[in-house]
Amino acid sequence: MSETLKNSDFISLAPVPVTVAGIAIIATRCLSVLMLANELGLEEIANFVHRSAQAWDSTLIFIASQLIFFYELRCAFLLLRGSNRGRWGFAATQLVVLLYMLLASTGAVYPEIFSISGASNAQIIHHTLMQKLPDLLVLGLLFVPAGSRAFFRKR
């Protein structure tokens, strides 16, 4: 069996940082959904979806959040296959999510479905950046190591 896997074409020859980043994206996204479902329960999830569907603007943001979730998963699989589009796509989604969370949390954008509460804007920004720190580390694995950059350049 090990000879089959060693000689197989479907196994990516991605460097370790790229493989770790791709698996981390998939694992964190899937685990976060499972943990959220466990924390809220079926009734609260239904209430959240119902509240999100009350107005067009909150419905659009809810749908956009689901599309971003699936696009991030798609980018992770593209990363594991060696696509540079996956790397830049994940970076773009993180920028969009960070901007929306900052604007919604400070009250600059309505509706504030996905916002972080805090006593002051500085505290809100700090909490938001701390929440996005794992994704920043994943981006670092994709853009900083020379092996990662070379891997995406040659593809």
Walk me through this protein's architecture:
The protein is an all-alpha fold and 155 residues long. It has one domain. 78% of the residues lie in helices and 0% in strands. It has seven helices and no strands. It is globular, with a radius of gyration of 18 Å. The mean pLDDT is 87.
> Biggest β-sheet: count, sense, barrel?
none
How widely separated are the two ends?
Answer: 28 Å
What's the SSE pattern?
A: HHHHHHH
What value does the Rg take, in angstroms? 18 Å
Tell me the domain tally.
1
Unreliable parts: none
| Rounded average pLDDT | 87
Helix fraction bin: over 70%
> What's the total number of strands?
0
The gross shape turns out to be: globular
Number of helices: 7
| Proportion of beta-strand residues | under 5%
Structural class computed from helices and strand pairing: mainly alpha
Task: Write out key terms for the chains shown.
single chain, globular, 155 residues, mainly alpha
